[in-house]
Design a protein that fits this description.
Blueprint lengths: L1 E7 L6 E7 L5 E4 L4 E4 L2 E4 L9 H11 L18 H10 L12 H13 L1
Parallel strand pairs: 3-5
Antiparallel strand pairs: 1-2, 4-5
């Protein structure tokens, strides 16, 4: 399955097109009771002449999409997201103060023992 899907950017909420490509397999068996016995195995009745694949295609497309959908960077490595939205995000983001790493004195003692034994 290869194609182009229009999605919303997780960063700036604007639509953009992204390419997808995936290979999936569905096994279809003829049996007495139609239904799904596993995720990729579908049983159809002997008299059935059609298979509804819409739900499978939807699931395959959703699985092929990246977890984080953001506009791709341009050739210079800059974001192609909406610059106004990026300004708003920067204005409302909280900056974490730099923290000093406090090491538990017990770990320091263990580190000293290890260094002695080397």
């Amino acid at each position: 399955l290869t194609g182009n899907v229009e999605v919303l950017c997780d960063r700036c909420l604007e639509k953009f097109s992204t390419d997808i490509s995936t290979t999936q397999t569905i096994f279809v068996k003829v049996g007495e009771t139609p239904g799904e016995i596993e995720d990729d195995v579908l049983i159809i009745a002997r008299g059935d002449h059609e298979i509804e694949v819409g739900q499978y295609l939807y699931e395959f497309i959703m699985l092929a999409l990246p977890c984080q959908k953001v506009h791709p960077d341009d050739s210079d490595g800059h974001s192609t997201c909406n610059p106004e939205m990026l300004k708003q995000l920067d204005a409302h983001s909280t900056k974490e103060p730099e923290r000093e790493e406090k090491i538990d004195p017990r770990w320091d003692a263990l580190k000293g023992i290890i260094e002695k034994n080397e």
